[in-house]
Design a protein that fits this description.
alpha/beta; Rossmann fold; 7-stranded parallel beta sheet; 4-stranded antiparallel beta sheet; elongated
Length: 802
């Protein structure tokens, strides 16, 4: 690329600065503070707004980042432009030009964040192109300005100072090679191109022409020029990455301004100004860390409560910031000690080579080597026809017959319609995984593969199936610090489950509850005795653990409320089976399907779900305290065929309404809005609907939730044998599943009879106080009311004799 400075022309000395007193300098200092003050809170605030809306379950506000862009350009760009146009010293004009250009670049790249984070490759490609265009424009504008005094042609791309810049950039990259993990191949290449383009843009703004404005004195160059460069790098850092990824860069880049100033001063000792090459190398390598080694989907408040991605990103940011500060100090000391002679090429090359080896070693040994990109879920147009199923006999025998026929039809449809596409994907080495509960295939592939698949006639749509990147160390297993129960918990008594045990003699025996969640601590004393056992009662598609286990604690807690003993579970005599569909509190369409398929037709370890399923071993009722939002790759209909098939098989799906209340219409994430799902909201000890409990109506207008149950300060089991109290509709949902287990235990003829079961639950529910916000009506807040275990079981028994 053509260098931005250096004669063939005779250098023209800059005009002497006007004696205008200290006020221009004061104005420049205040403007610099203002640029930083506008940029940093704007970026943090925009990310927080998106995160709060995500936690509240609201639609992503596409206008957030355009508003941030416009406000930042207006507030920070105007004073910077005034500084650039003011007829004062060359240093002040150079300062204003650099800051103005950086703010304008920030405004342009911030608009790219309207691209959803799930489409990360598209964003990185757009960022690379935009930054490259801005760099080209900045370079052209620099060439038409009058020349300034430059003593010699800038050094080559791999001169001594450039090698020192490479070494500094690799040192900045070291922490990310340790704590981060790469995405897919295309994603990594695009991240590298985006980092290179941003480095080129920084080089265009902070080239030899910029540094020449700060005079020949090395102290003034390093202190004043470094400070000005640090302020200019702040908007460029804010421009680097999708929402969340730019936050580490805001800490990392500004201290590197002093490193660049020290490198420029060192270059001048050799009589050859550094030019843009060192800036490109240092900034490009420094930005490669957060751009390539972090996933914006995982820098989220949803994971901030554990030692997950946000924790490790914070660790990487802190270490990288310390490295940047040490580089600024170290290069400054190197400059001071080498005033008599310029830095030598040999030691600089050796330092760069050593750090390159160090990055490789750290990445391979303590890091997370390999590629960890997202996969695709290809949903086919044809779904299985489940109409006309035989009614069968009442009870489990009839349910098993229906489940077997549903399984047969689903698998037959998948085999008939997927064959050609599976073979093609296998030939392309994209590792296809077939699914039958939803007729779909999960496969490797980026945007190009997705576009190709979307154009095939048998394909309805292609979803992104998120895959979590590995961490340097797993988060510690969640534990409970609450005392063990001494009798039935308050929520058990509130719904009358303890009366069912003592007065009706029903505990749920003979019924199997299926839990799809973060896992289950199978050795917990409240749960160990209820495990169904056998080789088809546990499945972990994430880590392939062969025995029930749980690190997050959420699954142990929820299942404890359904079938736990010692007073925490509604149906302590019921058995349970489990599946892991959440890892580190996030899932994907494919992992949710893995578990739902296992619940329809369990299979042994290593078995093929399409050939080794055992529908006669399916659990009777499923508790699902999770939802699949767009962040994880689901669209509204992603799991609709799955719940329809489970319902057709006579398996009752109970699901949490969500914790995004009190907003109306906040039951949106599958499977909670589906009409064939029994959706559960939450109440407190006073039978009042909690503020966090999501409200209806569902997007299709169906009244939701169906019922409410206790969901505030619910005591239940935690991994390691402990207990904890937690809040959420997650806690309410398993209690309704437990009530169903009690009903079916009292009247086995009801097993698989979902319509009668739902009718009994509705008819026996107790009214609850209605909050002021009624949404579409009371049923969109509390459904039929508070589940009443005692009344429901008595009604179930009466149905057996009626």
């Amino acid at each position: 690329m053509t260098m931005l400075t250096g004669p063939p022309f005779a250098p023209v000395p800059p005009p002497p600065p006007r004696e205008t007193g200290p006020w221009p300098v004061v104005a420049a200092v205040l403007t610099g503070f203002w640029v930083v003050l506008v940029t940093v809170p704007g970026q943090v605030g925009g990310w927080l707004v998106e995160q709060v809306m995500l936690v509240m379950g609201l639609d992503r506000a596409v206008a957030v980042w355009p508003v941030v862009a416009v406000v930042t350009v207006l507030l920070a760009g105007a004073p910077s432009l005034a500084l650039a146009l003011a007829p004062r010293s060359p240093a002040l004009r150079a300062t204003g030009r650099a800051w103005t250009a950086a703010v304008v670049a920030l405004g342009a790249t911030t608009l790219l964040r309207t691209v959803p984070p799930v489409h990360h490759e598209a964003y990185l490609a757009a960022l690379a192109v935009t930054a490259a265009v801005l760099a080209f424009v900045a370079a052209r504008l620099a060439r038409v300005r009058p020349p300034v005094a430059v003593d010699a042609v800038p050094e080559g791309r791999f001169g001594t100072v450039s090698l020192l810049a490479v070494a500094a950039g690799l040192a900045s990259l070291l922490p990310w090679a340790w704590v981060g993990a790469l995405g897919g191949a295309l994603e990594t290449v695009l991240a590298g191109l985006a980092a290179a383009a941003l480095g080129t843009l920084a080089g265009a703004l902070l080239g030899a022409r910029f540094w020449a404005a700060f005079g020949p004195g090395p102290a003034r160059l390093v202190l004043v020029g470094g400070l000005v460069a640090g302020v200019a790098l702040t908007p460029l850092a804010a421009a680097a990455g999708q929402s969340g990824v730019q936050l580490p860069a805001l800490f990392l880049l500004p201290p590197l301004g002093f490193v660049l100033a020290a490198l420029e001063a060192a270059a001048r000792q050799s009589g050859r100004p550094a030019g843009p090459a060192p800036v490109r190398w240092l900034i490009g390598l420094a930005l490669l860390g957060p751009l390539a080694f972090t996933d914006p989907d995982e820098i989220t408040l949803l994971l901030a409560t554990t030692r997950d991605t946000p924790f490790w990103v914070a660790v990487g940011t802190g270490v990288a910031f310390a490295v940047a500060v040490l580089l600024a100090l170290g290069y400054g000391v190197l400059l001071a000690r080498s005033r008599a002679r310029a830095p030598r090429r040999g030691p600089a090359a050796l330092a760069a080579a050593a750090l390159l080896v160090a990055v490789a070693v750290v990445y391979v040994v303590p890091g997370q080597p390999g590629l960890h990109g997202e996969r695709l879920l290809v949903v086919l147009r044809e779904q299985a026809d489940l109409t006309g199923l035989p009614a069968g006999t009442p009870g489990r025998a009839g349910r098993d017959a229906r489940a077997t026929e549903v399984y047969r039809r689903l698998v037959a449809t998948a085999d008939r319609t997927q064959g050609d596409l599976r073979r093609t994907l296998t030939d392309m080495r994209l590792k296809p995984t077939p699914y039958y509960l939803v007729n779909a295939i999960e496969t490797d592939g980026g945007p190009a593969v997705r576009a190709w698949l979307s154009g095939r006639p048998e394909v309805a749509r292609v979803l992104v199936s998120q895959r979590l990147r590995p961490l340097p160390a797993l988060a510690p297993t969640a534990r409970g610090d609450a005392p063990a129960p001494t009798g039935p918990a308050w929520n058990i008594s509130l719904i009358g489950a303890d009366r069912v045990w003592s007065e009706l003699g029903v505990t749920g025996s003979g019924v199997v509850v299926g839990s799809s969640d973060s896992g289950v601590d199978g050795r917990h004393p409240a749960l160990a005795g209820g495990f169904r056992g056998g080789d088809d009662s546990w499945y972990d598609p994430w880590e392939d653990r062969r025995a029930p286990a749980d690190r997050g604690g959420h699954g142990t807690h929820t299942l404890g409320s359904a079938v736990g003993r010692d007073g925490i579970g509604v149906a302590p005599g019921a058995s349970w089976v489990g599946c892991v569909n959440l890892d580190r509190n996030l899932g994907s369409p494919a992992r949710y399907l893995d578990c739902l398929q296992f619940m329809l037709a369990p299979f042994p370890p290593g078995g093929n779900p399409l050939t080794d399923g055992r529908p006669a071993r399916a659990p009777d009722v499923l508790t699902n305290s999770w939802g699949c939002p767009p962040l994880e790759g689901c669209d509204p209909g992603a799991l609709r065929p799955a719940t329809a098939a489970l319902t057709a098989a006579g398996i009752l799906v109970v699901a949490a309404a969500g914790n995004t209340g009190p907003s109306c219409g906040s039951i949106v994430d599958p499977p909670a809005p589906y009409p064939d799902v029994l959706t559960v909201g939450a109440v407190d000890r006073q039978r009042r609907v909690t503020d966090f409990s999501s409200r209806g109506p569902a997007p299709d207008g169906v009244a939701k939730p169906d019922l409410v149950a206790p969901g505030a300060a619910v005591l239940s089991a935690m991994p390691g044998g402990g207990y904890a109290t937690l809040d959420g509709t997650s806690m309410a949902t398993p209690q309704v599943a437990g009530v169903v287990a009690l009903m079916w235990s009292a009247n086995p003829a009801l097993v698989g009879d979902l319509e009668r079961t739902r009718a009994i639950l509705r008819d026996t529910a107790q009214p609850v106080p209605q909050p002021a916000e009624a949404c579409g009506g009371p049923r969109d807040v509390s459904g039929a009311g508070l589940v009443d275990a005692y009344a429901a079981v008595r009604a179930a028994r009466a149905a057996a004799t009626g």
